[in-house]
Specification:
Residues 4-121 form the Pyridoxamine 5'-phosphate oxidase N-terminal domain. InterPro entries: Pyridox_Oxase_N (IPR011576), Split_barrel_FMN-bd (IPR012349). The chain has 155 residues and is α+β, with helices and mostly antiparallel strands. It has a seven-stranded antiparallel sheet with strand order 2-1-5-6-7-4-3. The termini are far apart. It has five helices and seven strands. The model has no long low-confidence stretch (mean pLDDT 93).
Length: 155
């Protein structure tokens, strides 16, 4: 499985991805991750900033699914694979930690990195594309306007 340029764009612009792991009782655990990045052509990575349940689940069962959705484009990807925990000193941890500190400043917590080996990626599309014949540029403009209007109403 190769992570292509469009997948990279979506992960970068999503700003928030969702990670699903398996709890001890078999139920799903869904957790938002603001540190998701493409590491290379076959891997995603995110930082354990405050993820004790995600980490505990992955220690027991490395299966993982990551959903990255660009909410303005109304599309994204579902990445399925397995995860490895990477501790401080590991190149994946150091790479992601440097990015995290550049973004948030010194002292930001970074316990360990999680490297996701992507085995499968499937597109996620809004029904506006499949049933409404929507154009991505028009959708971005419309949804950006919706979110900005919501912010204006909150003020």
């Amino acid at each position: 499985m190769t992570i292509d340029d469009d997948m990279r764009l979506i992960v970068e612009t999503a700003r928030l991805s969702f990670v699903a792991t398996v709890c001890p009782d078999g139920s799903p655990n869904l957790s938002p991750k603001g540190s998701m990045r493409v590491y290379d052509d076959a891997h995603l990575a995110f930082m354990d900033i405050a993820s004790p349940n995600t980490v505990a689940n992955l220690r027991r069962d490395p299966r993982i699914e990551v959903n990255s959705i660009d909410f303005l484009r109304r599309r994204g990807y579902r990445f399925k694979g397995t995860a490895e925990l990477r501790e401080p000193g590991d190149p994946v941890h150091e790479w992601l930690h440097a990015w995290l500190l550049d973004l948030n400043g010194p002292g930001y917590p970074a316990h360990r990195a999680i490297l996701v080996h992507v085995e499968r990626a499937l597109p996620i599309l809004s029904p506006a594309y499949t049933f409404g014949g929507a154009d991505e540029v028009d959708l971005r403009r419309a949804w950006a306007g919706t979110y900005l209007a919501d912010l204006d109403e909150e003020r």
